Amino acid sequence: MSEQLTPLPAKKSPYEALKYPQFVAYMFANSFITMALLIQEVLLGYEMYKVTHDPMALGLIGLAEALPYISLALFGGHLADLYNKKTILMLSLSVIILSSVILVWATHSTTQLPQHNLLPIIYGVIFLIGLAKGFYSPASSSLNPFLIPKEVFANATTWASSFWQAGAILGPGLAGFMYAYWGLTNSLWFVVALLCTVMLLISTITAPPIPEKVEEKVNIFQSLKEGIAFVFKTKIILYSISLDLFSVLFGGVIALLPIYAEDILKVGAEGLGVLRAAPSIGAILTMFMMVYFPPLKHAWRNLLLAVGGFGLATLIFAVSTNLWISVVALFFTGAFDSVSVIVRQTVLRYWTPDEMRGRVSAVNGIFVSSSNEIGAFESGLLAKLMGTVPSVLFGGTMTMIIVSIVWIRSKELFKMKVTD
């Protein structure tokens, strides 16, 4: 039996969410940590491919982060529902900062570590960051809805996603140029400075009270079971995050961009920065448009069309040997993905009870991490086995097939009407 889909309240100002200072601080913190970690990811990925020329080295970066995150995210969500969310954020962010400082030390010219020592340290640090994110991400995602009233969830989602995409644009876009002109170690110092700024912003946010209903829970396994069961019985949530999981798992190309930059398009570190920034530019421009024209009317149809467009743009990118055609294709992957983000995050915020936000955010985070980091491993593995271009063609084709299957199996969700 499908759940009742109650429409949101009538339309408000497109700037409604910006009236809440703590939400604004949260948005900047989210943007800066995204920027910092993506700069770090691009720097390390490009350095490791230059050293190894092995697609699997890129895939293992994703795997090293995803395994600890997936292992701990549900437990992290459980803790986020039980304890002070701000404290969890501060502690886990401290671990991320320490990990980034270790990377600065390991890559500094005076350290002079040989390759057989440097690579395990890099993978180990990424693993440690994945552990910290297993606690940070559920606490951060579950904190967000407490900073704004429920009636402006959709507007807040658009602004939060836009700020996130701003970080996702600046991070990869800057990383290639920073690598080329500053070098690896100095660029990693910039990452540390950004993470410290995130710490200061989070310190200004007041943690929400823990609901009394949650304080009574003592059995962790029962608590986790409740969170998973809620997701699986709420079809609109399950289908939306599953669609994201499988489409990005197969259709994502981000992990392979160093190969395209070096060997296919031959544009170097600067070109890699442009390629990495293109999807986020498409996403943020689309999200700013959606502040005024939300995609929440006929939301499920729009979600499926957007994921289908994502798959088509991926297929075009796969066969392109021209930098600007590739950039345009990546631009549209980001534009289409942004529609998916707005619909999915609005669904999660609106239909999740306050006392379960940490656990549901953790389940969603596992799906997202699986699609991104495990997807990066899948991309590296298939590129090694099939070749880079055939592996991206395979991924884009699988995305189109998945959208078709979900379209057929979720017809009752087309009745969903969500208006902002």
UniProtKB/TrEMBL annotation:
Topology in membrane: Multi-pass membrane protein
Domain Major facilitator superfamily (MFS) profile: 17-414
Cellular localization per UniProt: Cell membrane
Superkingdom assignment: Bacteria
Keywords annotated in UniProt: Cell membrane, Membrane, Transmembrane, Transmembrane helix, Transport
InterPro entries per UniProt: MFS_dom, MFS_trans_sf, TM_effector
Segment forming the signal sequence: none
Protein name stated in the entry: MFS transporter
Native source species: Flectobacillus longus
